[in-house]
Amino acid sequence: MRVRVLITPKEGLLDPEGRAVKEILEDNGYKVKSVRVGKVVELEVEDPSQVKEMVEKFLYNPLIEEYVIE
Amino acid sequence: MKFGVCVFPGSNCDYDTYYVLRDVVGVEVKFLDFRETKIQNIDCVVLPGGFSFGDYLRAGALASKTPIAKALMDFAQKGGFVVGICNGFQILTELHLLPGALLRNENLRFVCKDVYLRVENSSTHFTKKLEKGEVIRMPIAHGEGGFYVPEDELRRLEERGQILFRYCQEDGSITKEANPNGSVGNIAGVCNETFNVFGLMPHPERACEDLLGYYDGLLLWYSLISA
Fold first, then answer.
1. Nearest-CA distance B23 → chain A (Å)
2. Interface ipTM above 0.95
3. Does the pLDDT of residue B82 top 80, yes or no?
4. Which of A38, A44, B2, B181 meets the CB 3.0–4.6 Å disulfide criterion with B145?
5. Could you confirm whether B44 is annotated as catalytic?
6. Active-site residue, B86 included
């Protein structure tokens, strides 16, 4: 089965990439409260019960990121 | 004192570091392939700069899951000396051998220039040939060098003297202008709690010869070999 993991910079942590995107969006006339740029990791696995462990041990850094498994 | 320089796919300061240790400092040094599972007859391992595994996932993240990285954990826990330069510093934080993480530079630019560093603690194996408060000069070249730790951890690092270098002005003052990447507290280099693992973003191996205009980096290597 396919599992999608969304990893984003932690709320409140400086995210210069998100800030740059926000500024350009605003320069183009869009109203945006905040932008955070992260990444998507799509895993195809037989046993989805291991995904959480893979994310926590490998894919994300708890100090600076948070994640959601879809 | 015998040195080992780790080589990951994408390391690009490995030969500079090897050259400086062997030909300028004059110590025994060998390369350590990332697939090696043991670190033997080595007193100090250097993780060189570069873009190990193309910086994929996060800078240093994939290198921190290799066989040599696992051997390095063991090596460090037994008290072996470890120095991580630039990408090597990123690998050490991913390994949790050093606190914190290195974020994308605040200005989003890859920064390649000389910086001044103020010595914050000169009583470590890595800095004993320097003076506390002394200002030295070295080059930096990185896109993800913004050192980050939460506030309470930052305070603990300061109390324990784990911060060895801060970015400063030529006169030693710590200012926002002197901070090239948005690091908290202008931090350029930190040690672990037991002071045998050290990571820094500046490149001491590129500052070891008169021909290049500076040799402040040599003081780090000389500190180590007098350990």
1. 38
2. no
3. yes
4. B181
5. no
6. yes
Contact yes or no for A64 and B107 at CB 8 A: no
DSSP state of B65: G
B115 burial (CB, 10 Å; 0-12 / 13-18 / 19+) is buried
pLDDT 10s digits, A4-47: 999 999 988 878 888 888 988 998 999 999 999 999 999 999 99
Q: Classify burial at B224, counting beta carbons within 10 Å of its beta carbon; exposed 0-12, middle 13-18, buried 19 or more.
A: buried
- Return mean pLDDT, chain B: 97
CB B127 within 8 A of CB B119: yes
Residue A28 is classified by DSSP as T
Please report the pLDDT score of residue A11 as a whole number.
Answer: 87
B8: which 2 tokens? 């990951």
Residue B143: list chain A partners with CB under 8 A. Answer: none
Cβ contact B106–A58 (<8 Å) = no
Domains in chain A, CATH or no CATH each? 2-69 (3.30.1280.10)
Q: What is the mean pLDDT of residues B83-98?
A: 98
Query: Nearest C-alpha of chain A: how many angstroms from B58?
Result: 9
